[in-house]
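Bit of a strange request maybe. I'm writing a small parser for structure token strings and I need a real example to test against, not something I typed by hand. Could someone generate the tokens for this chain?
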Amino acid sequence: MGRTTPAVLTYRRADGTPERFSLQHDVTTLGRSPSCSVVIPLPTISRLHARVELQYDRYVLFDAGSANGTFVNGKRIEQGYQLSTGDTIWLGDEQACLLFSDPEETLTIQAASLPPALFIDEDARHVAVYGVAVQLSPLEYDLLLHLAHHPGTVCTRQGCFLAVWGQPYDHATCEDALNACISKLRRNLRVAAESAGREPPPIRTIQRIGFRLDADVTFAAGREHTASLTHKAREA
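Reply from user aminoacidic:
Good idea to test on real output. This should exercise your parser:
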């Protein structure tokens, strides 16, 4: 096929550890069976659930007659689907979520137009880092959205907690929850950035004050107050 670097599927385990599968063969099988190329032992996944075929230097995903279906970006596929960097694949449901990244495709895209460091579609509650979809919990998403609406600006702990939990911040009882949320948010941004071969959008901790997002932020059109909003990152 003339391909130098194979595409990669990234699966995040229950403990948050990313596991990467290189699509080195013309056909890669996914399922619960140990005989599959990509094995995810979850009860909602069929023994042979799906397959990825390399066709004319592009990767095409097929459902293999699974019981619970195969989804791309939240939509169930009924026939072959040509994958692109940033596509999110669900096997059965969102518990088995894989991110697709094709380094050779990304190089082609970057030569023409580099995907934004951080893209947010508020209507769809979709977040992408350099074109790679990010899986966030509702709390993590609300925290990121609050920081993204004030890029390059220090957001206080009080303001962050109120934006996410809708309650006043008390240092003694709220600090651990906020610290855990910011830590998980950073980790998930890092996983997506690593899939794209880039550095994650930095969220700086300002001691005893709060946090600051130092990254380009691009919002999807559709909301007047966010359309075409892009903020250049400050130099740390």
